[in-house]
Amino acid sequence: MIEELLAARGAGELAHPGGTLLAHLGRTRDALAAWGARPALQTAGLAHAAYGTDGFPHSLLSPHERPVLVDYIGVEAEAIVYAYCALDRAFSYPRLLTGIVRDRFTGTASQVDNGLLRDIVELTYANELDVMTQSPLLRRRHAAELRLRLTSWSAYASLPAVEALERL
After folding, report:
1. What pLDDT is attached to residue 161?
2. What Pfam family is a match for this entry (predicted)?
3. What is the Rg, in whole angstroms, of the alpha carbon atoms belonging to the chain?
4. Are 98 and 136 in contact (CB under 8 A)?
5. d(CA 27, CA 116)
């Protein structure tokens, strides 16, 4: 079970807004499920920080351990997790709607297809909205910037995700 692997790799001890990283990962998955995301995206939500992210650099697995994560969550969900973790945000966010992203692990820029682009956007909504909900301090500091970014990506997000942003 993926939760056991994440816990064994320290997710239950790593501090994160709202408690631990493991709790955040669960809430991210739950938001995606509530929004009607397909099972692979929900599973990716649960493991979305497995390799660390540009915003949360604590990795639970190295990118060299991708086969381990594939064994737990499957090829489709792991591909979403890798793309999300590898996203060089400073380079990719301004170009995201063009589908051009840069892998922060390899330094390689590439074009992602619309399906993966939608998954990255939806996962970003779920992740960031959870962080903002859990941390009033971060919400005060980053809400305006986050709202602009996510709103600009709303054509690639589900209606429930966009509505969750509006409520926050």
Report:
1. 98
2. DUF6817
3. 15
4. no
5. 21
Structure tokens at 89: 């945000």
Is the CA virtual torsion 106, 109, 111, 115 positive or negative? positive
Q: Which of 55, 59, 78, 76 is nearest to 124 (CA)?
A: 55
pLDDT tens, residue by residue, 98-151: 999 999 999 999 999 999 999 999 999 999 999 999 998 988 998 899 999 999
> 48-87 burial, b for 16+ CB within 10 Å, e for fewer?
bbbbbbbebeebbbebeebeebbebbeebbbbbbbbbbbb
At position 163, the amino acid (one-letter code) is: E
Quick: pLDDT tens for 62-82. 999 999 999 999 999 999 999
Report field, pTM of the whole predicted structure over 0.70: yes
Please, which residues have CB within 8 angstroms of residue 78's CB and are 6 or more apart in sequence? 44, 47, 66, 69, 70
pLDDT at 39 over 90: yes
What total number of domains does the chain contain?
1
Instruction: Write out the two tokens for 45.
Output: 């939500």
**Dihedral sign, Cα of residue 26, residue 32, residue 38, residue 40:** negative
pLDDT given for residue 139 in this prediction: 87
Contacts (Cβ under 8 Å, ≥6 apart) of 48 = 25, 28, 80, 81, 84, 85, 123, 127
